[in-house]
Specification:
By secondary structure, the chain is mostly helical. The protein contains six helices and two strands. The protein is globular.
């Protein structure tokens, strides 16, 4: 660590007013995404955003789209809705190059913000309610989905950070 004072990570900044405590980790995960994408991806060119840093490695642009898209799809299941045809089209286009870093981050911020608005509606008594994922209706709970939204987001954030560092050189 350098000599500069680092601000604490989002989860260390205190409770979020008006957010159920068992939902707060998702908010902390999303804030970490916002800050780390800004820190590690800012200044990258469109070419760098879509460059594959290796044969089997996805470009940064994919990870940014996938974080937002997966958050949106998982939130759809969380709120007991069905995936729309538009969400399927977006899923299939996540790796399609073209969008700039500004466009990708704006879309990412919009997805995270929309999810946060819906998460604010979750009441404590809903935490253990059943939920179902996909056409096969795989069983989980509200809490299970919340955990998966947070951890899946962090998994792709880590890949995005690594990819940004690789393409930056």
């Amino acid at each position: 660590m350098s000599g500069r004072l680092m601000s604490p990570e989002p989860w260390m900044r205190g409770a979020l007013e008006g957010v159920e405590p068992l939902v707060q980790p998702v908010f902390f995960s999303f804030q970490q995404v916002r800050e780390d994408v800004e820190r590690h991806a800012s200044g990258l060119s469109a070419e760098q955003v879509w460059r594959k840093p290796g044969d089997n490695l996805a470009p940064l642009g994919f990870h940014l789209r996938h974080i937002g898209g997966s958050v949106e799809r998982l939130t759809t299941y969380l709120m007991e809705r069905e995936i729309t045809p538009e969400q399927i089209v977006a899923l299939k286009a996540e790796a399609t190059p073209g969008a700039s870093l500004d466009e990708l981050t704006a879309d990412l911020h919009a997805s995270l913000g929309a999810c946060e608005a819906e998460l604010r509606t979750i009441a404590p008594e809903q935490i253990h309610e059943p939920r179902f994922i996909g056409r096969k209706r795989l069983p989980t709970t509200v809490l299970g989905l919340l955990v998966h939204i947070a951890e899946h987001t962090q998994r792709h954030l880590g890949q995005a950070i690594t990819t940004a560092k690789l393409v930056r050189g």
